[in-house]
Amino acid sequence: MGGRNDINLLNRTHWALTDLSFRAIRKVRILSRHRSYFTEKQQSSDSEVTPYSESLAHVLESENRLYRFRRGMAYREILEHLGYKEGQRYIQRIQSLASKGDAVELINLNKGNDLFGSPITFTYGNYGDVSPTTLRYISTALEIANHFEISSSTSIAEIGCGYGGQAAVIGRTFGVKDYTCFDLPPVLKLIDRYLQGIDSDLTVKRGSFNQKSKSWDFAISNYAFSELSRDLQLSYLEEILSKCKSGFMIMNSGVSNKTGRSTGKLTIEEIRQFLPNLRLIEEIPLTGPDNYVIVWGEKK
């Protein structure tokens, strides 16, 4: 037992040291931006005031960069910034939502997410090597299953899809086939390439506001909706979210404003005008002082 603990300690120490430069640079950037880190522009999101968009265009220019895109500084700052301890917290949540055997099976099933993009992974005991971001996506899928009935026939709309990691986990976990992503064209291009790179069975549709007669069974957003400007949030509420029978959105604006993220965003009461049956629940694990989760259309 002592030998295994020693190996785990060495692994954590190794990654803490090799990841130190990223942590230090990210801290300096956040401190230097202060509240200007978050957008107040009417047609942009919080991620667009970081180097994220530029780094994405840079990645898409080269196949070699694509193979390592999840290690890029600007990209990690937005989507791959979780460390070892955060991964541990997500494993604890996965264990609380699933039996031990199911937790192992789910994590092993979704390690396929880490086959492309060269993410930083950590060794988590019997669960082996896995990215903390992938663990977050698995935890989110289980949170969804705890509140909703999701099956292979469920149609899903995701707002802000990153590189498609959450979509891939939901596709594997529930067998979902009808999946629409709403995001910028370069992001959608990366999603296609990523899903191809991990041999996912899921093919995502590209969403637009011009689908007047379209509706979906379920909506999901991991922070992205809450980071849009209020004008874009209103557009999504009117054109997409109000047409979704149920939904699960992790939020970091709209209630409190300890981080400054709620500046220029809709309040929860304004959102409730479009989603009258929404309910607020706790984000577990809590990853930010303003964070919470919106759910609506839960299973009986």
Notes on the structure:
- This protein has twelve helices and nine strands.
- Strand 1 and strand 2 form a beta hairpin.
- It has 300 residues and is of the alpha/beta class.
- The chain has a domain at 144-296: 3-Layer(aba) Sandwich (Rossmann fold), CATH 3.40.50.
- The chain has helices at residues 2-18, 20-33, 52-60, 63-67, 73-79, 84-97, 100-110, 132-147, 165-174, 185-197, 230-239, 268-272; strands spanning 122-123, 129-130, 155-159, 178-182, 205-206, 216-222, 244-251, 279-281, 292-296.
- The longest helix has 17 residues, at 2-18.
- The strands form two sheets. It has a seven-stranded mixed beta sheet with strand order 5-4-3-6-7-9-8, with no helix packed on it.
Offer a concise description of the structure.
The chain has 300 residues and is an alpha/beta fold. The protein has helices at 2-18, 20-33, 52-60, 63-67, 73-79, 84-97, 100-110, 132-147, 165-174, 185-197, 230-239, 268-272, and strands at 122-123, 129-130, 155-159, 178-182, 205-206, 216-222, 244-251, 279-281, 292-296.
Topology:
Elements: H1 2-18, H2 20-33, H3 52-60, H4 63-67, H5 73-79, H6 84-97, H7 100-110, E1 122-123, E2 129-130, H8 132-147, E3 155-159, H9 165-174, E4 178-182, H10 185-197, E5 205-206, E6 216-222, H11 230-239, E7 244-251, H12 268-272, E8 279-281, E9 292-296
Parallel strand pairs: 3-4, 3-6, 4-5, 6-7
Antiparallel strand pairs: 1-2, 7-9, 8-9
At the fold tier of CATH, the topology name of the domain at 144-296 is: Rossmann fold
Helix content: 40-55%
Intertermini distance? 45 Å
The quaternary organization reads as: single chain
- What is the CATH superfamily of the domain at 144-296? Vaccinia Virus protein VP39
Query: Beta fraction of the residues?
Result: 5-15%
Q: Strands of the biggest beta sheet: in what spatial order?
A: 5-4-3-6-7-9-8
CATH architecture descriptor text of the domain at 144-296? 3-Layer(aba) Sandwich
